[in-house]
Request: fold
Amino acid sequence: MNDPIQNRYDFIYLFDVKDGNPNGDPDAGNLPRIDAETGEGLVTDVSLKRKIRNYVSLLEKDKKSYDIFIREGGVLNELIKEAHEDERVKNVEKKSDKTKAARKVMCERYYDIRTFGAVLSTGENAGQVRGPVQFTFARSVHPVVVLEHSITRMAATDENEKTGENRTMGRKYTIPYGLYMAHGFISAAFAKQTGFGDEDLAILKEALVGMFDQDRSAARGEMTPRVIVMFRHDSYLGNAPASRLFEMLRIKPRTDTPRSFEDFNVTLPEASQLPEGVNLEIYTPETGWTRS
Reply:
């Protein structure tokens, strides 16, 4: 297992979407998720974690340490059973110790368990893992407008449809533009339990930058990471409240109907503003990662 990280991190993830649906709601006909009270767009933490999982699965990494547990077509109970068949687990006699041993094996093998945690008691019991990395919902910093588009096709599926005139297939929903912000938290205390280490953190940062480029589809439009602000605490438990740090990033629209990132004034945190014991690392597409 990796040497776990020794510092707490908090981060801000700012991304935008143009002419797309960043996260459809299956309970609302796949409409973009909207806060009904404010009109602000939403993207769930589950959606963001899915994109990170997909990105990591594409990396040419040792699958003994960087496999993905929650994946399409995966049978979770079979994967838990595999952990119990590991020699390090089979040789343990006491039931509670066997559960701990199986949990450790799964943390070592699966990146997403080591990072986000998982419930591993749906089949043979490997307990539960509380992951060190957690996200809030991403919320747009301004109200978004949902557009509905009729979509058609020229080809017919059978002879009956070929003779008909109506070949409308359905509807597609997009928002013209939305700038979304999510907050993230990385706990050194929980990293100690899962083995989330510096290399895992580096991969997480890489995924936050590159995951949209590996997840393109016509439905999602253009999604782009705009700013990542990473606050690194000098201590295990942290040197300042996350809420205080998050307030240092300020965003103000320049227009009532923003249609690009340039339609916002974004004021980034500066090193001089930081509480003692907190360091700053910022990513933008123009500069890459910079430290201050």
Residues 103 and 126 are 5 Å apart (CA to CA). The first strand starts at residue 9 and ends at 20. The chain has one domain: 9-148+172-291. The chain is about 30% helix and 30% strand.
